[in-house]
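One example copied in:
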Amino acid sequence: MKFRLRYVIILILITICTSFSGCGRDYSSQPFFIEASVDTVNATIGDVINFQVWAKGSGQRRVSFGPWEIDSSLIQIRSQKQLSGEYRDETGIQIEIALWDTGLVKLPAFPVSVTPAGEEQSVTLKTDPIFIMVKSLIPGSGQAGLRPIKGPVAIPIIMPWKALIFIILLLGLVIVAVLIWRQRINNQSDMIQAEISTEPADLIASGKIEQLKQKKLWEKGFYKEFYFELTFLLREYVENSLYIKTLEMTTEEIRINQDLLPFRNDITVKWLDFLKRADLIKFARQIPTGKICLSDLKSAEEFITDTVGYWKPATAHENSDSKFESTMS
């Protein structure tokens, strides 16, 4: 009785050990083999066919698929992916293919490289070739003939939105710039017209001299800008008072046409000397001193004061007589 009980206990232990030793494995009990299959053996030109190759029962062997040598003019590979089976030793590959020839098309054997466990050298096995009947008929039509011609496919209109938005923004900027420029011109025209129509030339020139004094450009070293403004306001004064286009004339042209000026000879000569010296500062880059700038400001005021009587009706005749007497003397 004790012997039988001991025998039963040993048998139970052996069964439990065997069960636990097999739990960690996930291999099938089938022998190793490879197989290839397709989802259909009857197709039409251009149909996508799923071609699968499986290696089952590989155990500890290393398996690699391909490369598959095919005629690319007859068989087109669309995509491929790896497959895994129910067990760890079942691996496969799926390839989507399209056939572009009619008749009986042969899918060549697919190579599978197998390396036994613990070895370096591999063995190449090949599947059996598969034959597929490819037809140019419409499935179910029951008659030979070409596929019906399909109508034109509508192509969606592709709008270059980025370029279109850029062009619209550019046109908008151009329009805004033109409007601002026209407004500026209108404002300048109104200002010039207002100055000419409301104030006499001597008051306009005197006001600009006061503004130039307030700027004090000579203290900042802006001598060139100072003489540009000073000579401009004196030319403008002569043009607005005597209607001689001195703003459009150079200093040399004013000297040549000085007979047009009704001023005394000494006033004209002094003004021409000032214009020549200002040209040297503006264009020849001569640098004056602040004292000279203040002296020229005072000379400009004196020029306006000495010449105002030559164009205002109240004193024009008296100044003309004095100029005549000065010339005779």
